[in-house]
């Protein structure tokens, strides 16, 4: 039989597999004895040379196989159907000798593929983000950047790679390195970063200096341009970048230069860097920063500080007299924090969020036992439609049911008002609704049950209880709303629209119904 016709599931021949395995002797045998072509292609357009450069371990020497295939007429620049060339792979996986060999053959240094040029792809491998720039148009230089190979990048630059090549998002190689936190590349005094920094626009250099914490460089740039005009991703200015990094020294310098105060960004520093927040926050406040200014989504500094658990920052903001119950699309700061010990400031623990749920409901829904205890201690109402205990029981959260039971008004027709009894009743309602002794005329209870099942993702049960509620009280808008929401969960959208439209006839001003229709 002719072994040259054999193919694996990807259409690769035996020579492809031997090249990928680095099996030089086998490659020789296949080419010289059996007549395999060094330029044969797989179903995806891959040549043996291309697959030989796919080895991800940069300790493996792929050069002997490459030299042999090149000597047998293999094309060093042949790309597959996605535009990948051997130079892309060698740059991304850090095969320095292979990059040098391919460049010596005169291959193009800036070929584009679906992920880009080899220089762009080297900033993410050590940070578990190998696909950060997937679907962008990048170069071999950027691929070397994503593979975090400074040596490969230097080789490509020396060969003439464009250090200022930009992806469709407008970001050059230097920004790729900055974005992924590759400080040895950003800070390198070698030719690649010097060339990139020198060729980048002054604004790009200023942002790079801010992200990298380079105060000296910022001072130099400030002497030649107005730093307030520099804008980065999503329109962020330099102070946004340094505040997010918690750099007090750079904040001080930029404020003295520009007078801008993005306190909101400073309070969004993640939990593991909470010590960085307060010094920056105090400095910004001392220089006139508005402690309550919201962004276009309604987020205030208090929202951020509460959500990220910055206790001391919360105290600082509250001492400035900021409103404690500002409402945005996700709720109040207390909703976001669930509970961080801020009750003494007067936050309303019964205030409902945009979904109509108070904080206690959120805590029960998420199984946050300690937070449930705290909220009850500071005045949260456990009798909001009898829902908190029903929701906890439906989820068989024994500890939370035990906490809620003493302070919850007994629900009529629950035969056994004990922890196990309430849980058992809710469990029976899931499987044997007729065996529970529930009053078949209690419309409010069925409305609450429908909501419980809805929150637990039980669409059929939610629909059943919603329809029972509507049958009992056909003029009650809430009953129609429950049925409509259950139908939406079950993706019965046409029926849901019909139900919501009927409900709107009963109450044309109902925002709840209008939201359901949207």
TrEMBL record:
Record Pfam families: Ank, Ank_2, TPR_2
Recorded superkingdom: Eukaryota
Record keyword Repeat present: yes
InterPro entries in the cross-refs: Ankyrin_rpt, Ankyrin_rpt-contain_sf, Cul2-RING_E3_ligase_SR, TPR-like_helical_dom_sf, TPR_2, TPR_rpt
TPR repeats: 477-510
Residues of the signal peptide: none
ANK repeats: 10-33, 44-81, 82-114, 136-168, 297-329, 355-383
Keywords from the named record: ANK repeat, Repeat, TPR repeat
SUPFAM superfamilies for this protein: Ankyrin repeat, TPR-like
Protein name listed in UniProt: Uncharacterized protein
Organism: Digitaria exilis
